[in-house]
Every structure is written in C-alpha cells, then in structure tokens.
Amino acid sequence: RFKWFLFLGIFDLSVTNTREICGFRIHGQNVPFEAVVLDKSTGEGVIRAKDKMDCELQKEHTFTIQAYDCGEGPDGANMKKSHKATVHIQVNDINEYSPVFKEKTYKATVLEGKKYDSILKVEAVDADCSFQFSQICNYEIVTPDVPFTVDKDGFIKNTEKLNYGKERMYKLTVTAYDCGKNRASEDVLVKISVKPTCKPSWQGFSKRIEYEPGTGSLGLFPSMHLETCDEPITSIRASIELETNHIGKGCDRDTYSEKSLHTLCGASSGTVELLPAPSSSANWTVGLPTDNGHDSDQVFEFNGTQAIKVPEGMVNTNLKEPFTISVWMRHGPGAHEKETILCNSDKREMNRHHYSLYVHNCRLILLLRQDPSEAENYKPAEFHWKLDQACDKEWHHYVLNVEVPSVALFVDGTMFEPFLVTEDYPLHASKIETQLTIGACWQDNSGHDNDTESVSEPTSGGNARMAQFFRGNLAGLMIRSGKLENKKVIDCLYTCKEGLDVQLPEEVAAAVKVEFNPSQSSLTVEGDDIDAFDKVMQHISYLNSRQFPTPGIRHLRISTTVKCFNGESCVAVPDVEGYVMVLQPEEPKISLSGIDHFARSAAEFESQEGVTLFPELRIVSTITREVETDPESEVAEGADDDPTVQETVVSEEIMHNLDTCEVTVVGDELDGEHESLELDMSQLQQRGLVMGSSNLGLVITGVNSMANYEQLLHLIRYKNWHTEALFDRKFKLVCSELNGRYVSNDFKVEVNVIHTANPVEHANNAMMQPNFINPVHHASVDLSGHNLVNAHQASVVPSAATIVIVVCVSFLVFMIILGVFRIRAAHQRTMRDQESGKENEMDWDDSALTITVNPMETYEDQHSSEEEEEEEEEESEDGEEEDDITSAESESSEDEEGAEPEDQQGASRQQQLEWDDSTLTY
C-alpha cells in the first residue's frame, strides 16, 4: 500500500511489508524526479525533483514507481518487488511573464464622416502557463484626447465621426494587462488614416510646374491618375488647355519682323511691310504708340485718335493681279462705327475709297472697287465675314487671299467663306492720286463725311482729316502682290513656338485617341480603359522651341467628362487648374568689335573702290551664367562665402541669327553730291537680305546668321570724291535680333583722311644757302588765302622780327616733319597688321596728334639753313646723328616727287611720304 504526500515538491511514501524496504524505482524516460527511502522499517520515502520545475515547459508529470525489499541473507537473495503505482505531479504557476503584442505596428484606413463598430483589433499574448496569469484581461489607449476607444478584447473604434480636413492620420499608443495585473513590456503603435469621402477627381497633380528654357520637353502630369470611386466607367474624355493669350500675340512666337517671318516661312518676294519698326529708312511709324509686351514684339496701339500715312511708292496701287493682305489684330468690343485697318482713298476732293479693310459690328469687311479702266460691269465690291474673333479682345491672325472675284479669309489658319458679297460698278475715271493710310481713312479738307475730325498724325504733319478710326492693336500688316499665300505659309506664320505634346506609349496607343488643335495649345484625350488613360495623361508635356522664350505664367486647365453604362455622365470630375512657370532665359549679349580708328589717304577715298569701314569686324554672342563653385577649391583658394560666381561663356549656339544691322553717320549727314555708303546688291540677294539707305546711313534687314552679316558688313565701303575739306568721318554700327529684343553695343569707327601738300618748287641747294638769305628776288606768294609780303626785301642782315619769325617757323616745320614721320610709320604698321590678319588693333593712337598745314611754307624754304642750326641746338644738344633731320631734306624729297606728271599725282601720294626714317626716334 502506497501513501504519498506532497511537500514542496517532495513526496513521502510508506510501504507495508514484513521485511525492510531498501529502495524505490521510478519507471519512465527522462523523469526529472527521484525517490529516496526515509525509513526502511516503515517503508517511508520521498519523491523529489532533480532540478527546478518550469510550468511553462511542462505543467504535469506522470510516471510509475515500484518498491523493493532488502531480500534474504546478506547478499539480498529473494528480493521482493511491490506492484507499480502511478504518480501524477502538477507544477504550480507564478506570474513571471508580461503581455506581448503580436504585431509591432497596427494600421487601418477609415472614411471620414462614419462611425465604426470596429476599426481594427489589437492582440497581445502572455507566456505564463496558468489560465489566471496567461489571460489578457484588459487593453488601454495610452494617448490622451483621441476620438477612439478599445475594449477588453482589443477592438478599437472611433467615438465620433472623423474629418479628413481636420486630421488625416491618427497615431495611438495601446498597452495590455494580463489577469495578474502585469502590463505589456512594450506598448504598440496604431496608425489610423482618414480617407476623404470618395469624390471622383484627378489625383497627384502639381499646381505649379517650372520650365527652364532650352530643356526641351517637360512632363506636366508624371504622377497623375483619375479617381473614379469604383464606378463602372465606359468612356473618359479629357480636354487639356494651355492658356497663353497674354503672351505676345497669343503665345510664344519668334519676334522677328513680319517680313523676315514671311521669308523664313517660305513666302516668295514682293512682300511689303506696312507697319515696320521705326528706323531711319522706315520712319512713318515713328510716334505711333506701341505696346511691346513681354517679349519686345512690335505691336502698335491705335486709340481712336491716331493714324499713319504710308509713303508713296511703297505699294503698287494696281490690284488687278492676285494679292494677299495679312495682319495680326486684337480688337473689341464691337462698335457701331466703321473702324478702318487699311484704306486707300483719294488724296483730295472726292474722298472715294478705292480699297479698304475695316471692322464694323464684329464683321470684317473688305472693300475692293473696280479700277476705272475696267468694263462697266457689276462686280463684287464688298466681302463680309461675321466673326466672333473680331470682337473678343484676343490676338488673331488674318490672311486675305484676293483673286477677284473670289476672296478667301484665313483666321488663325482656319478658312472662312464670305457670307455676303455686294456688287458695284467701277469707279469713275479721274486724275486724283490716292493716299494709303493705316488706322483710319484719309479725308481731304473738302470732304463732307460726318465722321471726320481733325487729328494730329504721327507722320503727316500739318492739318489733315481722317475718318473711321480704329481702336485696338495691329501688328505685322503686310501686302503681297502678284501671288497668293499658300496654306503651308499661312500655318507657318500662325504656328506657336510653344504648345502641348504627347508621346504615346506603344501599349496604349490603340486604346486611347488624342487630337490637337492647330496651334497645339489644347488637346483632347478619349478612351475607355482607365489605366491606359492615366498612362497617356502622364506622358503629356509642355514644349517651347524658342531659344529665348518669354518668361512668365502659362495657365493650364483640365476638363473631364466620364460616362457610365447608361451612356450618361454618371461621375462628375471637377476641373483641375494649374500653371507652367517659364523661368527667365539666359539672355545673349551681342558684341561688335574690330578696328575702330584708322587713316587712309585721300586717294583711297576718291578711288572706285572707296574705303572699307569694317574690314576686321567680329560679331560674337555671349551668355552670362551663374555656376556653382567647387567647395574644396574654394577653401583652397581662400574664396569668400558666396556660393556663386559670374562667368561669361560663349553661348551654346555660338552664332545666333540677326535680323537688323544699321550703319549711321555720326555728325553731319551724308552729302549725296560727293560721298556715299555702298554695298554690292548681289551679295545681299544671295543671302536673302534687303537694304535701305538714306543720307543718315544704311540698314540691312532680314533673318540670317551672324557669319553672313559679318561677311556683308566687311564689304561696306565709304566713298568721297571731294576730300579737300574732309579730315575725318565717324560711323556707328548697331545690330539686333528678334526685332530689337536683343541689341548689340554701339560700335563706332573713326576714319581719318591723310592729306599730302601740293608740290611746289623748292631750291635743291637750300642746304647750301647762308643762314640769312636776301629775299629780294622772291615775290609774294598767295597760299591758302594768305598773302605773305616780305617787308624787308632790301635788308642783307635780318631784323629781330625776322629772326623771331624764322625761329617760330622752324619749330612749326619740325613739328610737321615729326607728325608726318609718325603718320608714315603708323600707316606702314597698319598695312602689316591687316596683311597678317590681326584683329581689333588700331592703326595708331592719334588722339593727341594735331597736324597743322603751315601757310608760310614759301617763307620757310628761304630760311631752311637757319632752321637746321637752331633745331640742332634745341633738340639735339648731345649731337646724336638720328635727330639731325632738317627741313631742307624734307623739301628736297618733295621736290623730287613733284616732278611727276599731274595725272600720276593722285596715285603717288603715299609715295610722297616715303623717306628713310629708320634712324628716327620719336
């Protein structure tokens, strides 16, 4: 019979037996207990643990135990064993572990405006083995003042409706407790995101998009996608508009002159520009108000009080042949009075309008009367177009192709047919000349039009009467006779340099349809696959191909229509607005350089070729950039804290296009009777350029490279065939591009005329004469209006006055010789520099040189010996041989050259100055 008791893990065993109990045996594998006999006679014993017990490893242990006696005799023979008894041992638990959460972080998303029964569940576990200590009895939100609660099972819910505008994400700290009151070892973070109530809209759109000039294409919506709130969509249509109406004439266009643009777009010759930028050769727009805008595009403003007269001969008034009128116009709102754009009317008396283009009640009207020489037949005389564009206060491009009896109008590249044509008889024959005007119609004082009023015109001068004034802006008014503009040229003239672009991915090209408007300022995207639609939108880009675009804002708008299975708009997607910010471009600086001061002999000015004004001119365009400096080198060189430095570098496209170079005379105007500026016209025509000239200078216009302009300017020659009274001439050269947007420096050139004195007879033996010469045999000589009379013809010994005069004259002659030597040496250096191709050198620096022609030259000849002695005493006291140059030597040299025939004098003027000056120092 076994009995056992449990005392701190030790069991007492008692066995009833007549013999003594010698031990106990435990049966089982890896039993962590042992049995020990306490009293052999009574058979009591204990079961005790070999090691410490761990409830978490094993809560219970079960094994069998058996007792055996000591047997018979000293060797323990016949040892008896008891039956086996089963022992059950249960290990009691202690609260030694804290709760641990199963996740490091919990996340959930909820919709705003909704109360949830449960948002998410947090869960913690406890490693204790007993039910009491292993159960989680409570959860708690530690973060204060949050609209959430958690129950004992770990379910979190909101206590109020959430507002996306107030808070987009809540972060909560939650802890847990087991039933033994132990707190979790680490709290857990719970993130609850608030999602706005689903509203169909474009997501991932950046409102401001910066564009750096010269970087090519810029993606506008790289991360954008359409949220449709899981509605069953059947089709999507989006319109993207780039609003650039405030930029120049509606968008970024090249600001070359309109005539240059016609050439660039392939229009043939014969185009006359009626609103040119004011210049010396085209001055009839001087005084007309301008609105240059942001990009220096030449725009003329007509405020209803001013008009201009086009000079005679600019336009052929015979318009029987086909002709084209093109103009940029911004006008509005419409008025009840006629507003004239262009008008050709009688100069006096009758005030008949031969042809005109005007706006009336938002209609564009072309009046074209038959010439008196034509047959007396009814022919179309007025063509009307009802146009919204004529009164919307926006820039539009108008082109009229006139080939009587048909007229085609193109507005922004789109063709419009006239809706009303009025016929009329030809005008009556008269000998009255016509006047072409812009901004109004010319009315002579004798006219009786009620609409006339006196105005002060910019170019007419005097009292004039005009009628039907225009109110708005005009630019690029052109007339081209003899040929009509084709559609390709018209589109080129109107096309913007900036716009929208899209590169369709191959995988979505078939699923989505994309269409552009002619100016590429807007496009539409259509499709039924929302994923493909998003990809196309992400590939839409902004592109500006101008080298120097106009900086500023370009507004963007996206309008979207979504349809569902019933074919109606089931989802309303609000419009999206943003803007492209075009940053300030790196502007070019055009520099003109070369020889700016030189001299030529009078013979060269009078020759057939003349004198080249800009033989070594260089035109270079540079850009100033801000560049980051290397911090290491900055420290090494001891640079200051400024992270940027200004560095001038040659622009990437070294030679830009120019469109104008103007040479003007500084000082008196050119006298056409004996001087001119000339340039080979064939050279101009080869480069497609035109030239205008006046007594102020000449102007070369047309778009061409800097290299071509350089070559042409090298060929400009100045001729003067009356140089007697001319000592110098000054000219100024200025070049520009983009219709004056960027202007070069003023490059000034001064040309000096080298005059040689007319040869007179000199005594070859002047050096052999005595110091004082009796001048009785000389008669008085008239030189340059001065009568030099010898007052002491009978004197052998000169008086004191004579000595003073001789000394003064000798000094003057010495200065003349010195100046001539310097001129000769400088001229030779100039010739050598030109032959070697050196640039930007001056032939000499004569800023302090004054050459005086001595009117007493005859008197000097008589006293050359005395001059020689006194000059030697004053200037060469040390007796150096190189300073021993006398006036007699100079005179004998001139005397030898004076023997040449008169017809050879002009060609030999430079040779007159040739003498040996190798030993001269000055």
Automatic annotation (TrEMBL):
Location in or out of the cell: Cell projection, Neuron projection; Endoplasmic reticulum membrane; Golgi apparatus membrane; Postsynaptic cell membrane
Pfam families registered for this protein in UniProt: CLSTN_C (PF19699)
Protein's recorded name: Calsyntenin 1
Keyword Secreted among record annotations: no
Compositional bias annotation for Polar residues: 905-922
Species lineage: Eukaryota, Metazoa, Chordata, Craniata, Vertebrata
InterPro entries hit by this protein: Cadherin-like_dom, Cadherin-like_sf, CLSTN_C, ConA-like_dom_sf
Organism per entry: Takifugu rubripes (Japanese pufferfish)
GO molecular function: calcium ion binding
Region entry Disordered, spans: 857-922
GO cellular component, one term: cell surface
Membrane-topology annotation of the record: Single-pass type I membrane protein
Domain of life: Eukaryota
Keyword Hydrolase tagged: no
Biased composition (Acidic residues): 866-903
Signal peptide: 1-18
Family: Belongs to the calsyntenin family.
Keyword vocabulary terms for this entry: Calcium, Cell adhesion, Cell membrane, Cell projection, Glycoprotein, Membrane, Postsynaptic cell membrane, Repeat, Signal, Synapse, Transmembrane, Transmembrane helix
GO biological process: homophilic cell adhesion via plasma membrane adhesion molecules; positive regulation of synapse assembly; positive regulation of synaptic transmission
TM helices/strands, residue ranges: 800-821
Domain (Cadherin): residue spans on this chain: 24-101, 102-202
